[in-house]
Amino acid sequence: MIIEIATASKKEDYIARKPEGIDNYMREEEYKFLLLFILAIINDAVDLLGLFNPFIEVLLDLLIASMINILLGFNIWAILITFIDIIPGIDLAPIWTLYMLKLYLSRSKTKYRRVTVE
Predict the structure, then answer these.
(1) How many CB atoms are located within 10 Å of the residue 36 CB?
(2) Which of 79, 91, 94, 103 could cross-link 44 (Cys pair, CB 3.0–4.6 Å)?
(3) What long-range pairs does 11-15 form, CB within 8 A, spacing at least 24?
(4) Are 81 and 96 contacting, i.e. CB atoms less than 8 angstroms apart?
């Protein structure tokens, strides 16, 4: 009887504890997406407001897009959006912000689930 209570207590303790590293990983992902959103909003705001010369806007688009691609790693959609964003006239749409929102929502659907150990 005492052994069963001890094992049940250990099971509950194991279920209640989070594996180490998940909190840090989630924080890193949240900070990464926050930085990606900020870069995307800056890029789209520069495109929409048209404050700079078109040549300077293209250089800023390339600089910000390269930073986004470095943070995302190799992502074919991000590279395609980079080329689309450089085209004059199309860059008026908030392409980067919408893509970051889509990417964040698709990755936030995969959440960690609690698994019971028997």
Answers:
(1) 21
(2) 94
(3) 11/116, 11/117, 11/118, 14/117, 15/114, 15/116, 15/117
(4) yes
More confident residue, 60 or 10: 60
Global pTM value: 0.66
Report for 6-10, 60-64, 83-87: range of highest mean pLDDT: 60-64
Q: What is the pLDDT of residue 37?
A: 92
CA pair distance 58, 87, nearest whole angstrom: 9
DSSP annotation string for 23-55: HHHHHHHHHHHHHHHHHHHHHHHHHHHT-S-HH
What are the structure tokens assigned to 11, written together? 């099971």
Compute how many other C-beta atoms are within 10 angstroms of the C-beta atom of residue 64.
20
Helix/strand/coil (H/E/C) assignment for every residue in 75-94: CHHHHHHHHHHHCCCHHHCC
Contact 77, 99 (CB under 8 A): yes
